[in-house]
Amino acid sequence: MTSLLTFHENPPLSLYIHLPWCVKKCPYCDFNSHEFSPTGFEEDDYIEALIRDLDSELPRIWGRTVNTVFIGGGTPSLFSPDALDKLFSAIRARLNIHPAIEITLEANPGTAEAGKFRGFREVGINRLSLGVQSFNDEHLKALGRIHDADQAHHAIELAKEAGFENFNIDVMFGLPGQTINDALSDLEKAVAHSPTHLSWYQLTIEPNTVFNSKPPTLPNDDDIWSMQEQGQSFLEEKGFKQYEISAYAKDKHPALHNINYWQFGDYLGIGAGAHGKITNVAQRKIERFTRHKIPKRYIDLAGTDEVITETRVLTQDELPLEFLMNAFRLTDGLPAHLFSDRTGLPLKNAEKELLLAEERGLIEWQLNELKPSTKGIRYLNELLEIFVK
Fold first, then answer.
1. What secondary structure does DSSP assign to 321-383, as a single string?
2. How far apart are CA 265 and CA 259, in angstroms?
3. Is 118 helix (H, G, I), strand (E, B) or coil?
4. Domain 13-260 classified CATH 3.20.20.70?
5. Could you tell me if 14 and 257 are in contact, meaning their C-beta atoms sit under 8 angstroms apart?
6. pLDDT digits (tens, 9 = 90+) for 205-258
7. Lesser CB count within 10 Å: N end or C end of the chain?
8. Do the beta carbons of residue 289 and residue 276 sit within 8 Å?
């Protein structure tokens, strides 16, 4: 069957690298992560596997420029700077790298070391994302985190001393036993470190987690809503602009890698359990790819077709929802032409649903802009249900 999609050019391209080990699996975490043990941590073998994996993917992205790199996990900061240096030497030798590329590494305060942070900076990593979650020891314990509040503060200062001027702090709210004042206190302590970016999001109970099988007692809905409203007001007063449902940036430092996701750009994903989305302009299709989750199996299969466990071509009916479930997370919306640019479909394919969403007050649709309303941001699931086919 001939594809009806029409693309004029490739979307921006990012690279995601998954490093799957962590010291301890948190009870709320549903990411592909595996507890670290010195005997089972195959750093060199895994780096070699990533390079083989990248080599096998080059035909899909040949000639395209990579604008951002994000190294997630797991706890990527468990890896040594030497290992990441080897990986990035291979990346630079194989890919066209944007001269102003953003390279982000996730780091756990419990694995923070001054020498490591300096090493990461020397490798070329220019942005850190620090998984603090809370500055309250009792709440950190309830979340199963391996660090305490003092270690969190210390890790942030080590990052700054190592030369990281652009860094994010992850903070959660709606935690077991948390009050509204507790949540605001966490934000105040985070802001005091002068980050360029804050990811501030509500704890949710995900399937296949310890919290799902043994649910903790969370604050009531009214208190959680007050945490969110008062926290947003506080961050606005401190100069942090909310540009996405759970992302706040200062001084024009949004997470460029995440913006590419939300604008339905392409991303190549390598590593155990990594996902990718690639537009094939010549064949007029968009594909999603998923890799083996188990690190040992991934290492064995990297570089072969068998490392990919699922390949899925997005259908014409799926594309409007696929695009808008990302785009409507952006508080300022986006140019309407991006719908056609990124899906290959004319905007009229979603016109009926967009008009219904506008009628319900969930979006603001001007000639050249699509934007979720304040109501649409609050009731995002209701908004997206309109586009489910």
1. HHHHHHHTTBTT-EETHHHHHHHSS-GGGGHHHHHHHHHTTSEEEETTEEEE-HHHHHTHHHH
2. 8
3. helix
4. yes
5. yes
6. 899 889 899 999 999 999 999 999 999 999 999 999 999 999 999 988 999 999
7. N
8. yes
Tokens linked to 251: 């001084």
- Looking at the chain, how many residues does it have? 389
- Peptide bond before residue 271 is cis, with ω within 30 degrees of 0: no
Q: What are phi and psi of 54, to 5 degrees?
A: -60, -45
The CATH classification number of 319-385 equals 1.10.10.10
Q: Give the pair of three-digit tokens for residue 250.
A: 């200062």
Digit-coded pLDDT (tens) for 253-264? 999 999 999 999
DSSP of 216-276: PPPPPHHHHHHHHHHHHHHHHHTTPEEEETTEEESSS---HHHHHHHTT-EEEEEETT-EE
54, 270 Cβ separation under 8 angstroms: yes
Identify any residues that bridge with 242 across adjacent strands, giving them in sequence order.
248
Report CA-CA distances (Å) from 62 to 18, 85, 232, 284.
21, 23, 42, 16
Q: For strands 247-249 and 197-202, give the pairing.
A: antiparallel
**What phi-psi label fits residue 193: left (phi over 0), alpha (psi between -120 and 50 degrees) or beta?**
alpha
13-260 and 319-385: identical CATH topology: no
pTM of the complete model beyond 0.85: yes
Domain extent listing, the chain: 13-260, 319-385
- For every residue of 352-363, DSSP letters joined together read HHHHHHHHTTSE
How is residue 247 written in tokens?
């992302």
Q: Indicate the Cα dihedral angle 260, 263, 267, 269, nearest 10°.
A: 90
Structure tokens at 110: 């419990």
